[in-house]
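User: Here's a structure from my thesis project, written as structure tokens. My advisor, Dr. K., wants to see whether a designed sequence matches the one we expressed. Can you design one independently, without my sequence as a hint?
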């Protein structure tokens, strides 16, 4: 909503020193979103005067028509002689009054005017158009032709109100009252503590039997309808300059007097109106729902097929307007231009001022993709009590400006309705804001808004008709708080109740993220949507459970209609995107939910909105949701360690992916087992199956290793890309949420190295498990530090695994014999379990 400050001052006596910026600050403090303050004519400097065209000479020999004019500007040029001006426009004639800018002036945009030679003549100034003066759209884009009675030599800056400030307010959906000068003036008056001259306080005659006949068939859609008739409008009457300028400043284009007046009153009072050519209306004006398939040609020239829910204005022929949205072309007002072209200018009009249902108008406007100034107001809420005043204001202006006569007949149909009242404790705003306002402040602020307030401790508040958004006690509390100033509310931190905090799942999620970030991985968050073709690209079997997906009813993209069952598609896409942009050494991770449909999928019931859902309601809702375990995944490509003066560096490989799984398991306090595996996107010879032991049974929780070359080629990934994915929730269930501090002993450590020869197919993890169990409680740690597979020395199909075993006792220094005995026991059990022998 654009609000000229000059118009606002008509209804509120603002101090003369107050600028648009000052008013902006006050309104923002009151809760209105004033986006900008536009300074019209800020860089405009005269002389800019009214002139009368004396002669016009057509200049020949140029590519476009050029006219050499002499213009009488009175004494504005200091000589009284006619001003010689070259002009290319053709929408004016000898005798017309025009706007002339003289040398020495500056037009908007910093355009300085001086005498200059052009087209063989010297032009001493310009004859101005509305565009050149920054006036906005006047519908012609040509030279401004002023009314004949305008005085020659008069200051055009003052005449055209070119200097002003305009506040541009972003009106929220609940404040339809502020889509009018009246509404903004009321807020301004409250903000400054000044009285409001309400433009809707008019003497309005009561309804009688002589008004234009109106029939309301749908009182729910239209609960109030006022009709007035004005006859004898002058065909030559035009909108005065002040009215045109006000419409231009609020962003509307002047059209014709009757239409301009209805638009002016709408902007002034917030009540949309419509004027019908009485000679074109046949019979009774009615309001009803459209019949399916009916058609209407609206004022924009478009034929529209109506819906059965559309509210329409009708006469005896059928629809003549979309109620609250746009009128029909078959009753359009014709102005003096139409008369000049052989038509008949409208002399008698019927004025409609009605109140329509918000939801119905909003749906009609969206259904027909036809948003208008009227529909914007109706769908946000219009004051139903303002209809009669708006009709009277329109009648008064048409009588004043067009020489019309107001007929005595007044039609007013209204459905009975009681004012909306709310009972609110006087201290309720205090409790909401945490500030002690007191009863007097609460009552005063509500009365300033327009409420009638009665009572002491329990207030009975009658809501004003122009504020349909005030629906309950919290709306009233918000009015008090915003008018007292949001900036005056104290800043206090909430006190969380004791005993609450992050869940174990949340704590593990954070620890895993910190651990992987500390290991050099970068977190990459991806959308949880996938296309089912990605499972083919990952090489999953046709019966793989991961192919069972939850499909979205309204996906953001038809190419990704399902929820992910794995984190890898998103991570691998992120890796490919970064690699394609020149980042070749990558280590990415993500923790997030995956989604698996339940065996018996249920439909979620609608939850109640008038109360908190019960435990049964929430349980039923949870049962309808898919399983959503949290997973963690990493992907690696390029160098894991950079080359430099310190060494050659090394590329990322399958062992790094496995180590990332161990890192996650350590944070979960879980013991993670590894064995050779084969699954989907991983290389069959470089894939580790990750498992945990639950109640004596091994459960697979993920995989790690190098991806299959075929998958890399299909997805366009770098060579030797590695990946890991784990079920983080499964690790949490078997892990220890309480971090264990490392034990520190004052006694020395005893280190024993062993090299064991085993068959090449024996996993190192099985050898390590046997050594750990055989060494007993004295073993502090075990580490594989060498793998050797020389067939000449070890034999075909054999390999050597070298381990460093660290022994330590908590209460004494170990002897060599004790350490050796523990080592021998470990080697013996490894020989028994996996056939390991000491390498000689």
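Assistant: Designed independently from the structure alone:
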């Amino acid at each position: 909503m654009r609000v000229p400050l000059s118009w606002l001052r008509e209804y509120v006596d603002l101090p003369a020193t107050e600028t648009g910026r000052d008013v902006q600050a006050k309104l923002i403090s009151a809760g209105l979103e004033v986006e900008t303050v536009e300074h019209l004519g800020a860089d405009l400097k005269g002389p800019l005067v009214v002139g009368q065209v004396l002669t016009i000479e057509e200049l020949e020999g140029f590519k476009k028509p050029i006219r050499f004019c002499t213009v009488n500007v009175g004494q504005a040029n200091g000589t009284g002689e006619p001003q010689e001006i070259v002009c290319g426009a053709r929408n004016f004639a000898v005798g017309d009054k025009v706007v002339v800018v003289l040398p020495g002036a500056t037009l908007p945009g910093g355009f300085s005017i001086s005498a200059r030679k052009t087209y063989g003549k010297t032009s001493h100034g310009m004859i101005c158009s509305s565009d050149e003066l920054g006036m906005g759209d006047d519908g012609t884009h040509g030279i401004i032709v002023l009314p004949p009675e305008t005085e020659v030599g008069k200051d055009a800056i003052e005449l055209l109100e070119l200097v002003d400030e305009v506040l541009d307010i972003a009106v929220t959906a609940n404040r339809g009252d502020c889509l009018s000068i009246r509404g903004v003036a009321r807020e301004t008056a409250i903000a400054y503590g000044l009285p409001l001259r309400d433009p809707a306080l008019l003497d309005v005659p009561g309804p009688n039997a002589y008004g234009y006949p109106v029939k309301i068939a749908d009182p729910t859609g239209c609960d109030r309808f006022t009709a007035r008739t004005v006859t004898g409008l002058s065909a030559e009457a035009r909108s005065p300059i002040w009215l045109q300028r006000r419409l231009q400043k609020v962003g509307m284009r002047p059209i014709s007097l009757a239409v301009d007046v209805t638009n002016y009153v709408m902007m002034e009072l917030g009540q949309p109106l419509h004027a019908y050519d009485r000679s074109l209306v046949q019979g009774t004006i009615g309001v009803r729902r459209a019949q399916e398939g009916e058609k209407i040609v609206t004022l924009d020239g478009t034929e529209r097929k109506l819906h059965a829910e559309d509210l329409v204005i009708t006469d005896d022929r059928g629809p003549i307007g979309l109620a609250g949205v746009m009128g029909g072309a078959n009753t359009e007002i014709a102005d003096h231009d139409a008369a000049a072209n052989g038509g008949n200018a409208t002399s008698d009009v019927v004025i409609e001022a009605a109140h329509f249902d918000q939801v119905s108008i909003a749906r009609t406007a969206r259904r027909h993709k036809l948003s208008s100034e009227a529909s914007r107001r109706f769908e946000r809420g219009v004051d139903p009590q303002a209809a009669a005043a708006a009709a009277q204001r329109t009648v008064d202006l048409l009588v004043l400006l067009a020489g019309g006569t107001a007929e005595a007949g007044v039609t007013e149909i209204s459905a009975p309705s009681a004012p909306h009242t709310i009972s609110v404790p006087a201290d309720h705003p205090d409790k909401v804001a945490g500030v002690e306002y007191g009863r007097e402040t609460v009552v005063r602020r509500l009365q300033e808004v327009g409420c009638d307030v009665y009572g002491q401790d329990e207030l009975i508040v009658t809501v004003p008709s122009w504020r349909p958004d005030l629906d309950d006690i919290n709306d009233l509390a918000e009015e008090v708080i915003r008018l007292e100033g949001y900036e005056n509310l104290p800043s206090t931190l909430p006190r969380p109740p004791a005993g609450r905090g992050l869940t174990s799942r949340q704590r593990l999620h954070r620890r895993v993220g910190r651990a992987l970030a500390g290991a050099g991985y970068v977190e990459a968050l991806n959308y949880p949507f996938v296309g089912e073709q990605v499972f083919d690209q990952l090489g999953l079997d046709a019966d793989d459970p991961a192919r069972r997906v939850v499909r979205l009813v309204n996906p953001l993209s038809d190419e990704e209609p399902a929820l992910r069952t794995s984190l890898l598609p998103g991570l691998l896409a992120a890796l490919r995107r970064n690699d394609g942009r020149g980042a070749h050494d990558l280590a990415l991770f993500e923790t997030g939910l995956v989604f698996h449909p339940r065996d018996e999928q249920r439909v979620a019931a609608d939850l109640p909105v008038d109360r908190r859902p019960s435990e049964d309601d929430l349980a039923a809702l949870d049962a309808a949701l898919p399983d959503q375990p949290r997973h963690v995944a990493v992907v690696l490509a390029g160098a894991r360690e950079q080359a430099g003066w310190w060494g050659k560096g090394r590329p990322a490989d399958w062992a790094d992916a496995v180590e990332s799984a161990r890192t996650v398991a350590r944070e979960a306090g879980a013991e993670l087992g590894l064995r050779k595996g084969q699954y989907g996107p991983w290389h069959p010879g470089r894939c580790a199956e990750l498992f945990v032991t639950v109640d004596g049974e091994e459960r697979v929780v993920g995989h790690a290793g190098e991806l299959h070359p075929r998958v890399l080629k299909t997805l366009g990934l770098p060579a030797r890309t590695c990946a890991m994915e784990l079920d983080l929730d499964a690790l949490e269930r078997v892990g220890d949420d309480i971090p264990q501090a490392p034990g520190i002993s004052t006694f020395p450590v005893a280190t024993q190295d062993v090299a064991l020869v085993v068959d090449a197919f024996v996993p190192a993890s099985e050898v390590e498990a046997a050594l750990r169990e055989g060494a007993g409680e004295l073993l502090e740690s075990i580490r594989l530090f060498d793998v050797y597979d020389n067939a000449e020395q070890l034999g075909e199909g054999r390999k050597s695994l070298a381990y460093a075993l660290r022994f330590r006792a908590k209460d004494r220094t170990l002897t060599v014999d004790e350490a050796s005995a523990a080592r021998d026991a470990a080697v013996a059990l490894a020989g028994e379990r996996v056939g390991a022998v000491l390498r000689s």
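When you compare it with your expressed construct, this may help: The chain is about 25% helix and 25% strand.
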